[in-house]
């Protein structure tokens, strides 16, 4: 199973290695209103043309829009393209 | 990501559809199995299309069973499928390999010689001839050509070439030639010399700075006549040799003749053109037209073009373009006066090409001879010129 790692150690902090590389925290990149790239995702919970729910290590990302495709999918990244109108973030972490 | 897609094109990929109620689960299972999916599109609640590589497709069966989905192939894409389609087309394959083979063979020969000349006096045909003699000709195997030896041989044989370079690029041989400038014959300042005439003419003025003038003004001299001799005679010194210097002005005659018939046919282009093409393969000509020409009388200009595949890959096929332009002939009747004018004009035209300096023209005489059907004009220009060249005295 995939290890869940949420913090960086000292060396990684010193060398300024990007957070998404060393930990499992997702990186969400929105290009225009049409492409959304999520790195370090953990699974697709729901996929419809108008709604995509993506599970990550720290919570769920809900994307609403129109004519949305999953353009690319592999173990770490997912690229959603279409007319994106809303993005909700739902944290599952207990503080 | 793009690399993954490119890999998909080369190793082949399939366009699949998935039908089922647990499509999200299906996608997640793919993720866990490290299967790369792209262009996933959901058509409706239970129907989804996606692209997947061939190798990963076999793994899908298990996942489909687990998630209770139906998986089917819509389209097969990529190089392996493309090749598979052509496996059965044997003639296509044979022709393809024949073409590639012939290209490979053709590329081993020289099919075009391009000559670049710097200088005016050198002619392309002459250089082409000496190239042919030394083993660089169209149709020669490239491995038989020894560029260095050819250059050496030609430079030994011809002394009007200062530099020569041959470059074999593809099937094209680029020959660059630089003309050698002719050295003027330098007469040493210490050497004794005469001044001799280099033109026929009548001496107008002679002025010997050093040396002895041998002709008087008014004398008519021929080419090679001694004008100023390179020796001086003194009362006390006796004969001593010098380098003759001086100025000689002479009037030189230039004559040209031209005849004009009273009845002349003139040719004029009507401006109508037509183009025809032919193909030339090793002197075997194939005409691509049926009729010769629509025109009654016409001039034809041939332009040959070497065909090439790439910038320097010529093939031994020539395209001949025939440009037929229609012409019209009509007769002109000159009166005597008009014919005289015309004849004089033509003669003067010829003369003007000969004479460089027109300011020195002193006298123009025109003689007309009228024959039965023609007028002949003889135009003579009298031109003042400095004549005389140095000639070494040989003892």
Q: What would your notes on this structure say?
A:
The complex is a heterodimer of chains A (95) and B (395). By secondary structure, chain A is mainly beta. In chain A, 9% of the residues lie in helices and 56% in strands. Chain A is built from two helices and six strands, in the order H-H-E-E-E-E-E-E. In chain A, strands 1-2-6-5-4-3 form a six-stranded antiparallel sheet, with no helix packed on it. In chain A, strand 4 and strand 5 form a beta hairpin. Chain A starts with 9 loop residues before the first helix and ends with a strand. In chain B, strand 18 (298-310) and strand 19 (313-333) form a beta hairpin. With 395 residues, chain B is of the alpha+beta class. The relative contact order of chain B is 0.10. The longest helix of chain B has 19 residues, at 336-354. In chain B, the strands form six sheets. Chain B has a five-stranded antiparallel sheet, with helices on one face. Chain B has a four-stranded antiparallel sheet with strand order 2-3-1-4. Classes of the chains: A mainly beta (95), B alpha+beta (395). Chain A binds chain B through residues 43-49, 69-75, 77, 79, and chain B through 1, 4, 23-24, 27-28, 30-32, 34, 36-42, 45. Strand 5 of chain A pairs antiparallel with strand 2 of chain B, so a sheet runs across the interface.
Give me some keywords for this one.
heterodimer, A: 95 residues, mainly beta, Immunoglobulin-like, 6-stranded antiparallel sheet, 9% helix, B: 395 residues, alpha+beta, Alpha-Beta Plaits, Ubiquitin-like (UB roll), 5 domains, 5-stranded antiparallel sheet, 4-stranded antiparallel sheet, 8 helices, 47% strand, elongated
């Amino acid at each position: 199973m995939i290890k869940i790692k949420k913090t960086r150690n000292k060396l990684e902090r010193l060398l300024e290695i990007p957070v998404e590389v060393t930990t499992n925290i997702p990186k969400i990149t929105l290009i225009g209103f049409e492409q959304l790239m999520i790195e370090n995702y953990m699974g697709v919970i729901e996929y419809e043309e108008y709604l995509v729910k993506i599970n990550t290590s720290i919570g769920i990302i809900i994307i609403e829009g129109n004519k949305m495709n999953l353009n690319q999918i592999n173990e770490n990244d997912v690229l959603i393209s279409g007319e994106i109108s809303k993005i909700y973030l739902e944290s599952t972490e207990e503080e | 990501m793009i690399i993954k897609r490119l890999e998909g094109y080369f190793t082949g990929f399939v366009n699949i559809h998935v039908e089922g109620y647990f499509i999200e689960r299906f996608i997640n299972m793919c993720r866990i199995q490290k299967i790369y999916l792209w262009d996933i599109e959901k058509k409706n609640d239970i129907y989804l299309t996606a692209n997947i590589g061939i190798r990963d497709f076999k793994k899908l069966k298990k996942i489909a069973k687990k998630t209770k989905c139906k998986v089917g192939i819509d389209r097969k894409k990529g190089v392996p499928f493309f090749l598979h389609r052509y496996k059965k087309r044997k003639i296509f394959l044979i022709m393809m390999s024949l073409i590639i083979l012939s290209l490979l063979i053709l590329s081993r020969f020289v099919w075009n010689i391009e000559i670049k000349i710097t200088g005016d006096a050198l002619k392309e045909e002459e250089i082409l001839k000496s190239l042919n003699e030394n083993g660089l000709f169209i149709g020669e195997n490239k491995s038989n050509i020894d560029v260095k030896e050819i250059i050496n041989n030609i430079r030994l044989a011809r002394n009007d070439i200062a530099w020569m370079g041959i470059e074999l690029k593809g099937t094209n041989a680029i020959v660059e030639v630089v003309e050698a400038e002719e050295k003027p014959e330098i007469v040493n300042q210490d050497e004794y010399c005469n001044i001799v005439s280099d033109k026929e003419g009548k001496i107008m003025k002679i002025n010997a700075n050093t040396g002895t003038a041998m002709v008087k003004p008014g004398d008519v001299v021929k080419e090679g006549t001694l004008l100023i001799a390179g020796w001086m005679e003194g009362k006390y010194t006796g004969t001593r040799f010098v380098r003759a210097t001086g100025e000689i002005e002479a009037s030189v005659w230039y004559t040209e003749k031209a005849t004009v018939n009273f009845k002349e046919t003139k040719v004029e282009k009507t401006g109508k053109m037509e183009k025809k093409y032919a193909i030339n393969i090793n002197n075997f000509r194939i005409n691509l037209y049926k009729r010769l020409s629509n025109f009654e009388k016409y001039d034809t200009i041939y332009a040959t073009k070497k065909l090439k595949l790439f910038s320097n890959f010529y093939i031994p096929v020539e395209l001949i373009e025939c440009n037929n332009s229609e012409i019209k002939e009509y007769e002109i009747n000159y009166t005597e006066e008009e014919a005289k004018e015309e004849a004089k004009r033509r003669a003067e035209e010829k003369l003007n090409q000969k004479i460089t300096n027109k300011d020195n023209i002193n006298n123009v005489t025109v003689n007309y001879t009228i024959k039965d059907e023609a007028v002949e004009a003889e135009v003579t220009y009298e031109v003042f010129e400095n004549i005389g060249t140095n000639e070494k005295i040989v003892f």
